[in-house]
Amino acid sequence: MINILLVEDEDKVSAFIQKGLIEHQYAVEVARDGVAGLTSFLQNTYDLIILDVMLPLLNGIELCRQIRQQQPQVAILMLSALGTIDDKVNGLHAGADDYLLKPFHFNELLARIEALLRRRKTTEPLNHTLVFSDLKLNTANKTAERAGQNIALTAKEYVLLELFMQNPNRLLSREYILEKVWGLNFDTGTNMVDVYVNYLRNKVQKNFDKKLIHTVIGMGYILKEQ
Predict the structure, then answer these.
(1) What CATH number should be reported for the domain holding residue 212?
(2) 3-state class of 172 per DSSP?
(3) 65, 79, 169, 203: which is deepest, by most CB within 10 A?
């Protein structure tokens, strides 16, 4: 299922968009202000982000800029009642892929979303290789290496590492990891995630000075360079 983050402070507008997208089989999470939107983005993975320009706490232009710095590939559709050329240019310069004026027909919104997702799919890399620092993951033959040294992984360790490498520099909560790696959408009450992250660390970081998988106490784990 396609995951969409909608950042919109107008309740009627957000409810209208969310209801319509859910009816078209999209999963939609709503944030009511820019700070909440940024928090959701940092803690979860989305295929597309829809955001309004005029947001409380953190405006849509700055939110778009921060999202784009963290995740160059995610599709971003900006909504606004501001329709001058300068407004559109500012949004596109901040990193938006498309700019839709309010008010709009839902069918137009849906068409823009489908076009952005098609474009994103056609620009995905074809070499099946994920790279972070000196760590490489081949998603075709399910192999991993660091600095040219092969890393033997179990099936779950591979899926966990792939999840991290698909989301570099992003905080992943234990609940999110549990859902994506084990398909569980509830807390099992065990430390299974912590155990497997430690397994993975021992294989990926052993004999290397640079640590890549870091703990954020009370929140989860993040793949980043020191």
Answers:
(1) 1.10.10.10
(2) strand
(3) 79
Q: Which amino acid is at 142?
A: K
Q: How far apart are alpha carbons 102 and 115 in whole angstroms? A: 19
Distance between the two ends of the chain, CA-based, in angstroms?
A: 34
- Tens-place pLDDT, residues 146-198: 988 999 988 889 989 999 998 888 899 888 888 888 877 666 667 889 999 99
pLDDT at residue 130 in the model: 86
Residue 85 and residue 107 share a domain? yes
Q: Going by C-beta distance under 8 Å and a sequence separation of 6 or more, which residues neighbour residue 102?
A: 13, 79, 80, 81
Same domain, 51 and 154: no
CA angle at 33 for the pair 1 and 81, rounded to the nearest 5° = 90
Query: CA-CA distance, 197 to 41, in Å (whole number)?
Result: 22
The pLDDT tens digits of the residues spanning 117-154 come to 887 765 555 557 888 888 998 887 888 999 889 999 88
Which one of 79, 95, 122 terminates a domain?
122
- Separation between Cα atoms, residue 171 and residue 217, nearest integer Å: 11
Strand 143-146 and strand 3-7: pairing? unpaired
Are 142 and 200 members of one domain? yes
Tokens for 17?
């968009």
| Domain limits for position 54 | 3-122
Q: What is the CATH number of the domain that holds 21?
A: 3.40.50.2300
